[in-house]
Amino acid sequence: MGDMKGGGVEVRRAQASDDAAVLGLLRETMGWDAGGHDEDFFWWKHRLNPFGESPAWVALFDGQVVGYRTFLRWTFLDDDGKPLRCVRAVDTVTHPDHRGRGIFRLLTLEAVADLTREGDAWIFNTPNDQSRPGYLKMGWTVSRRLPVGVMPRRVGSAAVMLRAREAADLWSQETTAGRPAAEALVDDAVVTGLLLHAPTTGVRTQRSPEYLRWRTSFGPLHYRVVLASESDPSRGGLVFRVRRRGRALEAAIIEELVPDSVTAIRLVRRVLAESGADYAIGLPRRRRPGLLPLPGQGPILTSRPLARTPPSPGDWSLALGDVELF
C-alpha cells in the first residue's frame, strides 16, 4: 500500500470484488467494443491459464478504481528441467483523469515487492519502444533481441513482406489450412506426439497437454495445426495462425514441434501454400535453411529479477508463442 504525490491514492492487491470496477475502467480507457472479443480474451488470459490465475493490483482514489496492473503467470524450465515460476508484465491502465501522477510506477513497484516476497523467479516481457524506457527506470534490463526467421511464399512475396512495417493485427484471419488446433489437440495422441519434440535445453516454457490446449483454445485467434503425418503425430507438426500486417498476410508459426529442419521447412511451405499467406514468421529454435534472418527486426525481450536472476542472453529458448500475443 502506498501514497503518491498529491495524496489520497491507495494501492493494494486486486480482489474478486474489484472485477466489475476493473472491467469498467478497461472498457472506458481501452475502447472495448460492446459484444467484441476483448473481455473474453481478458478472462481467457487471466483466469483460465494453466500456470495459474494472474496476480493483479489496483490503485484507488476516493474509493474508486483509477488504476490497474496485472501479470500473467508463466512457468519456465531451466536447463536441468527444474520448474521456475515467473510472471509476464502485461495489462496496465490508468484512468485519464489520473494520468501523469505515477500510478503505473506505483502499481508496478508494489507488484514487484509482493512477487519477490512470494518467491517468483523473475518478470519478463517485450515492451514496445514507448513503454520500454519506463520499465528500464524500474530495474528492467534488456535481455536480448529475439532472432526472427521468415520464409516468403514466392519471390514476389519478399517485397510485400519488407513493406509490412505496421504492427500485426491482434485477431486472426480465418483459413482452411491445416486443422483447427482446438479440434486436433483434443486428441491425446496428437498432443503427446507433438510434445515429443518440445525443446529440451535452455530456459524454455514448461509445455504440457494442458498448456498447449489452453494456449491455442481462444476461438477468435483461429490457431491451426499441420502434422507431418496424420497417422503418426510423433513425426511432428507446427502450430500457427494467419494474421494481417498492413497489406501483407502473415503466417505466424507459434510452435515448431518437429524432429528436424527438413520437416520444419516442408511444413512451413505447406502452411504458405494452403493459407495463401505472403510469408511465414517465427522464432526458430536453430538456424534453418530456407528461413531468412531479419537482422534488427525481432522483439526486444526485457526482464527483471525477483527472487532469482533472469537467464543470460544465450540461455533463453523461446518460441513465437511465448511472446507474440500477450
UniProtKB/TrEMBL annotation:
SUPFAM superfamilies for the chain: Acyl-CoA N-acyltransferases (Nat)
Superkingdom of source: Bacteria
Protein name in the entry: N-acetyltransferase domain-containing protein
InterPro entries xref list: Acyl_CoA_acyltransferase, GNAT_dom
Pfam annotation, one family: Acetyltransf_9
Segments forming domain N-acetyltransferase: 9-166
PROSITE patterns per record: GNAT
Gene Ontology MF terms in the entry: acyltransferase activity, transferring groups other than amino-acyl groups
Regions that span the bilayer: none
Species of the source: Knoellia locipacati
